[in-house]
Amino acid sequence: MKRPKLKKASKRLTCHKRYKIQKKIREHHRKVRKEAKKRGRKKPKKDPGVPSAAPFKEELLREAEQRKQRLEELKQKQKLNRQKEHEKKRKLEAKKNAAKVKEKAEGKESSGKSKAKTNKLLDKNSKKSFCRELKKVIEASDVVLEVLDARDPMGCRCPQLEQAVTCSGGDKKLLLVLNKIDLVPKENLEKWLHYLKKEFPTVAFKSATLMKDRTMQEQFKKRRARVDLSRTTECFGSKCLLKLLQQHGKTQNKAIQVGVVGFPNVGKSSIINSLKGVRACNVGLARGVTKSMQIVHIDKQTKMLDSPSIIADPSNSALALALRSIIDTEESDSADVLEGVDAILNHCSKQQVMMHYSIPDFKNTEEFLTLLAQKRGMLKKGGVPDIENIAKLLLCDWTGAKISYHSQPPVSQRPPPYLTEDKIAEMQECWNLKNLEEENTTTVQALKYPSPASSIIFQSPGMANGTIEENKVIEEASEWENLETGKKGEEEEEEEDFTESEDDQDDAEEEEKDVKEETKVQVTRKAKLGKQQTSPTNSEKQIAESEHSNSLSLSLDKTADEDDAYDFNTDYV
Predict the structure, then answer these.
(1) Where in the chain is the domain with CATH 3.40.50.300?
(2) Residues 358-385: pLDDT tens digits?
(3) What does the CA dihedral 549, 550, 551, 553 come to, rounded to 10 degrees?
(4) CATH code for 127-213+229-314+409-450?
(5) Which of 265, 294, 308, 386 could be joined to 399 by an S-S link, Cβ 3.0–4.6 Å?
């Protein structure tokens, strides 16, 4: 009996075999190279172009350019047709799949459940859910913190929210928190604090920019050794706010819940993080990061409730919508973004914008965006400035904490109609206002501020209207569903269009080939004729000029369809 093999057979070859294989490979490569040499490499023929001696060279070139333009237009049309066809195919496939799914589905109950699931998925990031969560926060909280951007505090105030809190009854209080105070000149900040404290108690605040994450504490320690983060992580006004809230809790003799409310990118979550000292809530440059109510325990007496941002009403001005609405810059239309940028530039001083971006004089927003794109190197294929992306980036800069701009408070103090003297007195009760003023002065003196010359002067659009009630919100998800259901009756029409579009595409391809052949023939003929005619007489010249003028007049009057045919009037002998 043979002994069983315990080990696998080795894949190693003898040197003789290995060298033999290498030799064969070399021979094969040599053979391939020889065959390639015999065949010879066919270089692409260069376009000789129109010779300089040829008469009417400029006209020939102009005609060639026109033909190129026509070809490009044809290609674009074909592209659009193809896209339409693909869309129709997808729709048809989707409908077929949907029909199959319906056949498989058992009974009406299963179909009802599937619809409910789709509604939930659509409703997750919808405006209605935002309103629902926001209302929960307002109802659950004993103190509501309305966060305002110090650069435009009036534009960040929502009259609907203030009215809901003041008219809710009970011991519910409203506090204003001026965030991002380091981006505003010192004098302007003091003016705003003086203006706002007459209506509601206000706290000057500067939230920490870099925070320790719960899960990433080790990495943070390593990073801290390299970079000095003392200035960036420092928070101002947190002690003042915590003292106020703790004092209010003691007067109430219970643990209080503090709701943090405001428009997008105002710094709601960052305020909670800076009070906690740890990154408890998600923070980002994108608008609408917080999508549901989040409870953060600061101590035994205080709970912070993070809320989704207030939804700006569509009746607001273009500027208010650009800065305060929940726009996803990646998915939003370019027209909306450009309109927002235009509104921002119209409400700023032109010279200061030019100085800030170090850009020459511009006539309109498009020119400004092109200059900015060229300066920052945001270019598309062929060196074309990417206007859409630069506009989105500019919007992010203005809502984020990059650009320093400031707006002046109103000259006369005119409180809104819902804020009567009794209401103001009621809101200012139970707060130690003298202590608050002292704390605010200490925070104002501790910070470094930009100079008034470097900060851009901005005209505030005033209070921004917001929708808090769920019923008033126009839901996008429901519209999408209606569109889907409405399309069921259009199946036959789409199928007919699909068959017609195939014929159109074939015709377009044939036209393109004809145009290409015509260009080649015409250029070669005219070049040859130019070479043959070296010394024409005066009479011949006159005839040629008259014929040429007639041909030009004819070519100008032609339509696009007549242009495709070759015109023999341009040739002369």
Answers:
(1) 127-213+229-314+409-450
(2) 889 888 889 999 999 999 888 888 889 8
(3) 90
(4) 3.40.50.300
(5) 265
Question: How far apart (Å, rounded) are the C-alpha atoms in residues 305 and 142?
Answer: 11
Residues 6 or more apart whose Cβ sits within 8 Å of residue 488: 95
CA–CA distance, 240 with 156 (Å, rounded to integer)? 22
Which H, E and C letters describe 285-313, residue by residue? CCCCCCCCCEEEECCCCEEEEECCCCEEC
Residue with tokens 């839901």: 475
Task: For residue range 25-71, list pLDDT tens digits in order.
Answer: 999 999 999 998 888 776 677 777 788 888 888 888 889 899 999 99
CA 190, CA 405: separation in Å to the nearest integer? 15
CB 515 within 8 A of CB 564: yes
Q: What is the DSSP letter of 565?
A: S
Amino acid at 50: V
> Within 253-380, where are the H helices?
268-276, 318-324, 334-346, 350-357, 365-376
Token code pair at residue 352? 């200061």
d(CA 429, CA 173): 9
Decide if domain 318-399 falls under CATH 1.10.1580.10.
Answer: yes
Q: Which two tokens stand for residue 354?
A: 């030019």
Q: What does the block give as tokens for 443?
A: 């925070």
Quote the distance between the C-alpha of residue 429 and its chain's center: 44
Which residue has 């080649």 as its token pair?
520
Residues of the chain with pLDDT under 50: 118, 120-122, 213-232, 475-503, 505, 508, 515, 520-521, 523-573
Instruction: Please tell me the distance from the alpha carbon of residue 356 to that of residue 350, in angstroms, as a whole number.
Output: 10
DSSP code, position 434: H
DSSP, collapsed to helix, strand or coil, labels residue 192 as helix
The CATH 1.10.1580.10 domain(s) of the chain lie at: 318-399
Instruction: Quote the tokens at residue 272.
Output: 């909670």
Which residue type is seen at 438?
A: E
Look up residue 357 and give its two tokens.
């971006």
CB atoms within 10 A of CB 335: 9
- Euclidean distance between CA atoms 198 and 192, whole angstroms: 10
Report the C-alpha gap between 553 and 375 in whole angstroms. Answer: 45
Q: How many C-beta atoms surround the C-beta of residue 3 within 10 A?
A: 5
Query: Which position has the token pair 């023999």?
Result: 568
Contact (CB, 8 A) for 184 and 151: yes
In the block, tokens 């951007």 appear at: 149
